[in-house]
Each structure stands twice: as structure tokens, then as C-alpha cells.
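Narrative of activities, Objective 1.

The group set out to show that a structural description can be obtained from nothing but a protein's sequence at a throughput compatible with the screening campaign. Below is one input-output pair from the validation batch, recorded exactly as produced.
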Amino acid sequence: MERRLTAILAADVVGYSRLMGRDEAGTLAQLKEVRCEIVEGKIAEHQGRIVKLTGDGILAEFPSVVSAVACAVGLQRAMQTRTASMPDDRSIQFRVGVNLGDVIVEGDDIYGDGVNVAARLESVAAPGGIAVSQSVRDQVGNRLDLIFEDRGEQQLKNIEKPIRVYHVLLEEPESDAMPSKKQEKPSIAVLPFTNMSGDPEQEYFSDGITEDIITDLSKISGLSVIARNTSFTYKGKAVKAQTVGKELGASFILEGSVRKAGARVRVTGQLVNSNDGTFIWAERFDRDLTDIFAIQDEITHAIVEQLKVKLLPQEKKSIEQAPTENVEAYTFYLRGRDFQIRYSKRYFELARRMFAKAIELDPNYARAYAGIAHCDSWLYMVYQVDVSLEGILETAAKALTLDNKLAEAHTARGVALAAARKFDEANAEFERALTLDPNSFEVHFLYARPAFMQGKIARAVELLERAAEINPAAVQPQGLLIQMYRSLGRDSETKAAARKTVELAERELVLHPEDPRPAIAGALALLELGEKDRAKEWTTRAQAIEEEDPICVYNIACVNGRLGEFDAAFDLLDRVIRSSDRQFWKDWIENDSDLDGLRNHPRYPQLVALLNERFPRT
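Output recorded for this entry:
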């Protein structure tokens, strides 16, 4: 029996029995026509699959939530156009429900709670409308130009727990034509707390405090919280609350500072109304370092109280649950997290050391186990480090045993399973991680790579676009999007991604001159823009920084291939393949459009033969 997480669309015809009673033959003919001309086309257009047709009902599944909702919207709008001139008592209308849930797969059919919830959502949708679950709303975020009307928690028939339901508004509501929308959730952005310790090495600590406050606030269903990576684009900048609020669409801004000295810590926090810049709340906490979790908890509760947000019992319990009782373990974890996000072999090894030290101090620290699994997955897959896949999976399992709702542990397990080429299991882990943390840059970015390796380029693009939306300052998503847009024939977007990559790479090279990745990503982007000389300069810089990193060597091969220096490109690819015993490179080489110029070269069959010799299909 196979299980998987999938996006489910359920639809049925409004008043089907009434229509059949009035004109059975005409209704059947019209339904058949609608299915052929609209339903099947819309589902196929959005990479969906019709699971089954049941009388007047439709059940379909999609590779992503965004695809499912976009299909539902396209379907309903097409039906509106079709029936605009038809009498209401003879026109077919659908109700549609969309859910993200776990399903059981038997042959071509799917069953389980995920399907049941989708069907119940469909039953509470308005005629011609769409109802979605909270998980769907969170996953879609701002990726579709839609308005979601929060209808609150509803007890759906035969569903044990209440489900928060959202209705998708297909057009702007008119004030006198529809019931007024519920009050939107208060939106808040948490700016990076300023490090006041006088020691730049303590930056990881103030950043970590900020991230954990964002994480806690994100657990509150009554708040809309700007993602961490978006907030952090303001790090080190002197900005006004009104400006940030306008740019991020946040009504409230939390800002503050952290001073850590020995066993003492001082944290300040100020909550500001971004509309007029007035202070709503401000506090200073002078405590022992061991009280750091209590301080975070007090700040979160103060915001809840000031914004008059209802805190549900399970949310209160989750927020008050400290990740560890050992503040020294927490400090090592924050150091490790700061290293981990830099994505190079040296920093992964440093991060792993910090996480291991955190576990020595607290053997039940779930996030530290997840951190080790994440680092080991990357070191195994890309850098050929002698780490066993079984060990990685055991470490991720340990993290999940301690906290099964830890998105980063599901992500690490997904990376490891992808490295083992168990893609169906990996995809399920990534989808679970997305459900738990729909605003995670890491989940979207890391999921995009195995999606690409499976040849699912459209899905990889969707994930990278969301990653870039969450963290607009990140170079890697934009750089990868260049070649993927090119593969899909999206020329204008290819150029736009290249321009953005160069802009971000220039900024990153100033901040981190020791990192070769922005230089090589920028070089490939410059080639896309026709700036060959500058691309060569940036490639030389990347080589000077790091000659042995396999990702750097591979991407320099791509640069050489784009420049027409084919022998140099093949020599470097040969070097990458021979130094590896991981299937990762074969999957990447087969799908990378940066190498398209090499595929008709006389040496390419030799390269393919080497790939097949090193990595035979299993």
C-alpha cells in the first residue's frame, strides 16, 4: 500500500438531480461537452490527473497546490464565460474543493482523509465557487493573484476536527453585492534584531533570536507573519517602520536589539504601527542567559495581547515549549545554523560540528539532529564525503521521533532519500515539510533540485520562484531559474532572471568575497546577457577562490561550453564524473540546458558512456 501527500481537487455539479429531472438527455449531453471542452483541458494544462469521474463528480490530483488552485480558478472562470448567456435553470455550475492531504494509492485510485476533506470542502463552496483548506491557503501564499476570504473554522460532515475554510474570490467583491469580508489578520514583520554586543561574532545570536521569534509568531493562526528571509533583507539598514510596512504589506513592525555579555543578556523590543510610526509596546529585558527562552515567550505574548489576537490552546502550548533546556546547546545550534545557510563544504562541516556539540549538551535536541542530517545529506550528495545514507536517515528519524512536526527534519530526510534515488518517498517528505512550514526558503530550494533531477522542470521552477519570493536576496534560486526558464522556452523570463542574478551576485560578492558561488552564478548570467568578457573575469575569480569544489568545477564547465571552449568543458565534466560515485551528477548533466551546446559535439557520446559506466541505471 502506497501513501503520498498530494493536492486534491473535488468538484460536482450544482443541482444535478434538478437538472436531470428537467432535461435528462440535454443535461447529460451538456455535461459531456463541458468535460471534454473545459474540464479535461484545464486539468491537463495544469499537469493534473483525473482520478475518476462519478456521475456529476470529478476527482483529480495535482503535483502542487498552486497548480490545483490555478486549475480550479481556470475551470470556474471558463464556466462563467460559457454560461453567461444561458438561463440559470439550464446551465451547469460546479462547486470545487481543494485540499492538500495524505492519500492511499491503489492502482489509479486514491483514498483517505485527504480526499474526504476535499469532498467536504466542495460541499461548502458556493455555486460556481471554490473552497480550500488552511494548508492550501498557506501553500499558495502570494503566488496567485487571488483574494482568499477566511470563513473561519468549520465542522465538516464526517471530519473529526474542525477545518479552517477559505473561499477563493474570483473577482473583486462589490460592497453591496456580497457579505463583507472578515477582518484580515493583523500582519507583522519582525526586523533583524541589532547586535549590540560590540562583537561581530555575536551576530549569529541576535539573528537566531529574531528567527525564533518569527517562528513562534508564525505558529499563531490569528497572525499573518512576513517570512524570515524577506524581513532579513533589511538587515543592517536604517529604515523607517512606515517604509517597511508599505513595502512588505505589514501593519505592524517588531524591532529590537540583543546584547550578550558572559552569562547575562539584554533584549529590547518595540512594536510599531507602520501606518503612523507610533509605538504600541516597548520593553527591555535584563536577564540571565538561561532566561532567553522566557524572554522570547514574553515578547510573543506581549504582541498577541497588544494586537488582541486569539491564542488557541495548542498554539500556546507550542510556543511555550522550549526547544532545549540547555542554553549552551541552543547557542551552539544557532552557530551551526548560521554556518549551514552558506552552502559550501567547509561551512557544512563547521555547522555539523556545532550541531554535534549541541547534542552532546542535550541528547534530546531535535533541531540539532535535523541540522546534522541536513549537513550530512548535502556532504554525501555533492561533496562525496564518506557518510552512509542509512546513518543520515537514522539521524533524521531521531529528530522526527523527538518532534514529528519539525519541517527541517522532513526536509533533511527528503534530501537523503533523493540522494538514494527514492524520489517518491523523498517527494512525500518535502511535501510534508511544505505543509508544516510553507514559508521555508530551505524546503522550497532543496525540493527544487530533486524535482529537476527527475526531469520535472516546471515543478522545479515553481519551487524556485517561491524560494526567490521568500528570500529575494538569495542568488542561487535566480541562477538556477535561468537555465530552467530556457528549457521551458520562456525567453523573457530567462533574461529577467539573468539580470536579477547579476544584481544579487554583485551584492553577495561584496558581503562574502570568499564564496565562489555568486561569482560563478553571475558568470553564467552574464553569458545569458551577452557579456562574455565580464563572464570570463568572474569565472577566473571563482577559480581563484575555489578550484576543487565540484559544484564550482561543474559550473565552470558550463561556462566553457557556453563560450564554445568545448575541450575545456569536457575535461572538467570528465573530472567531476570520475571524482564522484553519486548518481546526482548524471541526473543533473542529462537535464541541464547550460550543456545543450555540447550535446552534438563528437566527445559527448564518450561523456554519456562514462556516465553510464560510473552510474548504471538500477
